[in-house]
């Protein structure tokens, strides 16, 4: 029998990188900060934050001249706003490499939106003439995502979206569990066990990825395990990045409820079906059908369902499923 997943106290600590200004550090160009209450006050109870500011590490100083992204022959460059001929790209790239050398153990990263160093997407790029285009990525953010493609990365502005917030935090916990797995001697058995525990979670995000990884894992004997593990986690994290919807969650909830078909009487089955339909129609949040399912599985435990991280992918006190 597989033990139930425990998400209450990850060990070792769950470490997440963060743009320093989001924790209230006065490192902005004007000596101010962008303290984010949800990150600083709430997520700090669950994550051990490791703050970085690429611009300070690059020696730009605080306060400092404002900078922005500009087109370059290959990619983008960073220049001063007041003096566009002052190119700071090399210094910022060097600082980025220094930061990235301390990121191997991170389970996620939270970036400052719109920043020419840390913006994840839609950062303004200013051509020599004409209208700026919101199609850039900050210099540090681009290097971070290139060097650690499986790492969950998000920017603080998108945390106001309940679906994106839940998606990011869920991925952080999955990636943290993966890091714990590969610190032990990797075997086909524990890789398959890891996947099995995450199957319903993946199904809620990307059914094609769910099926593709299932097929790949069915024939591990013909593959180099270490090479496959890198391919596996890249595909898994890409699949989990897809937004789960009420339709995909309902599909998973129906699968899970099928394990109760011999345990519930007619009235209980009717009540469960009504709750699932209410969720599908947007009348109640995800926590409602999950709470009812947990109630039934406490009365009629099933080892396969007990092992599924979909039921509790992160600490319940985060209350993320109260809003999706």
How would you characterize the overall build of this protein?
By secondary structure, the chain is α/β, with parallel strands linked by helices. 44% of the residues lie in helices and 10% in strands. The chain is built from twelve helices and eight strands. It has helices at 37-42, 54-57, 89-100, 139-147, 162-183, 188-203, 207-217, 225-241, 246-257, 266-280, 287-299, 303-306; strands at 15-19, 48-52, 67-71, 76-80, 108-111, 123-125, 133-136, 153-155. It is elongated, with a radius of gyration of 22 Å. The model has no long low-confidence stretch (mean pLDDT 95).
The helix content, as a percent range, equals 40-55%
How does the helix and strand content classify structurally?
alpha/beta
Strand ordering within the main sheet: 2-1-5-8
User: H/E order of the elements?
Assistant: EHEHEEHEEEHEHHHHHHHH
Strand content: 5-15%
């Amino acid at each position: 029998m597989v033990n139930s997943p425990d998400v209450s106290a990850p060990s070792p600590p769950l470490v997440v990188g963060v743009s320093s200004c989001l924790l209230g550090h006065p490192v902005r160009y004007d000596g101010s900060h962008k303290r984010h209450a949800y990150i600083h006050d709430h997520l700090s109870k669950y994550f051990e934050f490791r703050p970085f500011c690429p611009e300070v590490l690059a020696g730009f100083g605080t306060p400092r001249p404002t900078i922005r992204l500009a087109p370059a022959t290959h990619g983008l460059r960073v220049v001063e706003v007041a003096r566009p001929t002052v190119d700071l790209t090399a210094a910022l790239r060097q600082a980025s490499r220094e930061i990235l050398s301390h990121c191997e153990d991170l389970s996620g990263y939270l970036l400052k939106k719109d920043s020419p160093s840390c913006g994840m997407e839609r950062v303004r790029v200013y051509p020599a003439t004409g209208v700026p285009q919101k199609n850039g990525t900050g210099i540090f953010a681009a290097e971070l995502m290139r060097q650690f493609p499986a790492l969950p990365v998000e920017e603080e502005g998108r945390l106001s979206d309940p679906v994106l917030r839940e998606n990011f935090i869920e991925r952080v916990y999955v990636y943290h569990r993966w890091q714990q797995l590969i610190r032990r001697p990797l075997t086909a058995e524990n890789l398959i066990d890891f996947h099995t525990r995450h199957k319903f979670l993946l199904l809620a995000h990307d059914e094609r990825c769910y099926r593709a990884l299932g097929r790949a894992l069915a024939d591990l004997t013909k593959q180099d395990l270490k090479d496959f593990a890198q391919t596996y986690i890249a595909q898994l994290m890409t699949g989990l990045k897809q937004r789960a919807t009420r339709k995909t969650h309902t599909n998973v909830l129906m699968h899970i409820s099928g394990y109760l078909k011999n345990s519930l009487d007619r009235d209980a089955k009717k009540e469960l079906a009504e709750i699932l339909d209410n969720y599908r129609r947007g009348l109640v949040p995800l926590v409602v059908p999950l709470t009812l399912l947990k109630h039934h599985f406490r009365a009629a435990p099933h080892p396969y369902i007990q092992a599924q991280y979909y039921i509790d992918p992160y600490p319940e006190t985060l209350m993320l499923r109260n809003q999706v």
